[in-house]
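Ticket #4471: structure output looks truncated?

Reporter: J.K.
Steps to reproduce: submitted the chain below (286 residues) through the standard prediction queue, then opened the result file.
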Amino acid sequence: MTDHESPQRQAESMRARRSGPRSRTGGMFWVGLALTFIGMSQAGSAWCQVGGGLPSPGGAGGGIHRILSVDSPPGDIGGARLQRGGAVAGYFQPVSFRGPGETAFALAVDGVFQPPNDSQQSLHAGLLIGAVYRFRVTSIPGFEGEELFPTLEVIDRTYPPHHLAVRYPIPIELDLDDLRDALSGLMVTRVIYLEDRAGALAFDAGPDSPITLDVPAYQDPLHTADTLGRPVAILRIGSVLPPSHESLLPQFFFGYPAWVSIQPEAVEPAPGAPLPEGRSAAPAAP
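Returned output as attached by the reporter:
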């Protein structure tokens, strides 16, 4: 895609669950799927998270044979995107991690998780396309003292105007149901995708209002995301714990990929959009 994408979009996701024990191994099992929409702005089309497949190098469309699936090893799908070329190699895609209440997020540097920023309820960072990042989730409401170590695989980038890239990151939304299921031994997968405006689903979602739709467990969330838009990231929330032996840390952290910290920018409400206090935003001065 060469044209700038509108930053006024929402995010949608398909969520998959499978059962599995909480352990120090990398085993993952799945049961159930859901589609979640996460609003990113006051108006416009949407971001999406689903479970579905990437388009083949020859292009997207129905009836194609897909080699990749959501069950592909972490890194395979992002690696396939890099092989297709384009302005993706070496690009740090802005993302934001958000969760319920006081949930805290931390990325690692050389295998050491960085302290969460107490002044922010979300984590903003630039992540490399094709890389897999292990991050830590703590301070989960109702599960204080528990920790989760999900992964995020960035499989494509967005194309907003350059000066708006930080203002409109890919939203990575973890709701309490996701976290509770992972702590109970389930594996939850979300595929975040940028919707196709021509086939946008008619949902009234605000900038911070996730909408979840269940889909049959036999559907691949990556393939579903591909039919509805362009997948950009895969979030896997399981119950795997850090290895006890130091020699296994590089595998646990997928080779310690680089990332950059990003200072979030406030998004101004669109003219005429309702404000939290019930007032309306004044039109911009000419």
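Triage note (M.O.): checked the attachment and the full token line is present. The mean pLDDT is 74.
Status: closed, working as intended.
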